[in-house]
Amino acid sequence: MDNQKLILIGDSAFAEVAYEYFTHDSEYEVVAFAVEAAHRVRDELFGLPVIDVEDMEATYAPEEHSVYVATVYTQLNRLRTRLMEIAKSKGYALASYISSRAFVWDNVSLGEHCFIFEDNTVQPFVAIGDNVVIWSGNHIGHHSLIKSHCFISSQVVLSGFCEVGEYSFLGVNATVANNITIGKDCWVGPGALIVKNTEPQSFYKASPAEPARITTHRYFKIKA
Question: What pTM does this model have?
Answer without folding.
Answer: 0.95
